[in-house]
Hints:
Elements: E1 2-6, H1 10-22, E2 27-31, E3 47-49, H2 55-62, E4 69-72, H3 77-84
Parallel strand pairs: 1-2, 1-4, 2-3
Amino acid sequence: MNYHLVIDHRFVNGFISVAEAVSAGKNTYIFFFEKPAKNITHTNINAVYAQPGTKEFEEVMSSIKTSDRFFIHWFHDAVHHALRRLP
Length: 87
């Protein structure tokens, strides 16, 4: 599985379109913001709204395996400690 940590920004829609064209169904998008999205319009994707420190963020981070890929499309100090725990 490919995990993508993203924010609600206008470039993300285009990126999701490309990522799904290249590896459809093999991506999980970790939305680092609260609902509702202002710029992301994709609805048929595997996505979780999860901010660091929340139960949702901890759950998605604990589901990542050594064989998975984790892409950081937006970095913030708040995720630094969580990233250090990745396998």
